[in-house]
Amino acid sequence: MNKYRTHNCGELNLKNNDEEVLLSGWINKKRDHGNLIFIDLRDNYGLTQCVIDKKNKQFNELEKTQLETVIRISGKVVKRNSETVNKDIETGEIEVTIFSFDVLGTCKELPIPVFTDQEYSEEIRLKYRFLDLRRKKVHENINLRSKVISFIRNEMEKMGFNEFQTPILTSSSPEGARDFLVPSRLNPGKFYALPQAPQQFKQLIMVSGFDRYFQIAPCFRDEDARSDRSPGEFYQLDLEMSFVEQEDVFEVIEKLFSKLFKKFSKFKILNEKFPKITFVDAMLKYGTDKPDLRNPLLIYEVSEVFKREDVKFDIFKNLVNKGNVVRAIIAPQTSEKPRSFFDNIDKWSKDQGASGLAYFTLEQKSDLSAKGPIGKFFSSDSLKEIIKITGAKVKDTIFFSCGKKKEVENILSLARNKIAEELKLINHNQFSFCWIIDYPMYEINEETKKIQFSHNPFSMPQGPIEKLDFKNPLNIKAYQYDIVCNGIELSSGAIRNHVPDLMYKLFNLAGYDKNAVDEKFSGMINALSYGAPPHGGIAPGIDRIVMLLANEENIREITMFPMNQNAQDLMMKAPSSVSEKQLKELGLLIKKKN
Fold first, then answer.
1. Mind listing the pLDDT tens digit for each residue in 413-445?
2. Model pTM?
3. Positive or negative: CA dihedral 143, 146, 150, 156
4. Residues whose CB is less than 8 angstroms from the CB of residue 385 and which lie 6 or more positions away in sequence, other chains included
5. How far is C-alpha 368 from the geometric centre of its chain's CA atoms?
6. Is residue 232 classed as helix, strand or coil in its secondary structure?
């Protein structure tokens, strides 16, 4: 028999009544009732209420024992009476009468309490993360993460994928985010880079003749922190498949995610066959390529209406005539809202850096009309034209934004969410997935005015190679796709360009000559020259998946040992200084700034 426990703290029930047991765990909570002391003993599996009588010779000793002390108790399982049953825990129908206890691990005074999920500052939570991880919510989140990863592994293997590990020390990439560099002792003056993603390696695995690869891959990027992105490192489900088209990748992910989100959440999945939205439509209807489809509101293009003779709103009319756009969003059935509702939306938009949102509310008297700040500038016929385009109804309010296309897209994508939240139109107990497809291969760099890749330079362009419009590269679309859930991008993916001659042509349009491609992507272009299969893949982020399943808004809550916003590990005191000896071995000298 194990000397520490016969059962764990989430295991005992009425079937164990009258049994003598050993339990070990942390003192989670203590309640002194004078002649009785109740303690909640906690381990990884749950809580068990234990009770000691004043007649017990160890009563006073337990009374003085600090919370979070690790103890082993010997005792007897007793059925609780009906008034004291705790239905919130698995062991709530029993308690354990303590015969004796031993202290296995003492505890100093706690800097943060463990038995509550009360919010504390990021600094103290991360400095004492080992204590923070004992708290119920974050402890359950980390266990959830483990179960999610195990489930994904099992499902990927069922679908014929093999798990392979790719190198951690590799070469620096000229594309993408900033690398973490590692100096080489054996090759002075040269550096490894930690992989931003196993992108080139997983393609090389396909070239090597393996058919279906996956990995729960660690990725490293020297980026600033965000609520949904850890500074430094993150994990992704990296996968690649040979002899596939776009739809084959979609089928794998939809099958996996449908099972995964059903198993680990009670939220409903709106569409198990994820809708496909072109990039152009996404930017028009939602103002973003990361739309939250739980939100029913859409954005409408109404620029042409403002060119009409019977529209007298000259501010917008003049801007449209100079090449700007006007787009609209409807706040349904808001005619009875107080003036403050509309003014607050307008003020909010200015706080986001926009010039404000113009608006009016449709009303029907003798004829169709509009009330509000700009309502007087529209004839009945022009309002009917707006209704025809937008599907708006009487008593709806229409907000307008006018300006450069990207600026209008940005503010209305935010306004779409703001208005929907204000009107409580979003069901937060749902998951709504979608694919964003048909990304343009190229875009114009706004600063240099030159052609550049818009998404992934290694993607396969759409259509027969011999018919690609190289003279008008902005017309070329790629087999690139994003998967989005509830407005959060989980991953980008693509069917890869496996044809070296085509790759040279595509890179040339973005300003890279053959020598530059050979130098910067030598491993990849060389491998593709020795018989590469058509292949494609995707890499959904594990952290964001678990955030959604745990219904958390900050990645810190589902990461075991996160860094702070300045990419510092407060618990392990990293990054840290190193000795002169270590620097000398690496041939490095640190120059201090003045």
1. 999 999 999 999 999 999 999 999 999 999 998
2. 0.92
3. positive
4. 305, 308
5. 45
6. strand
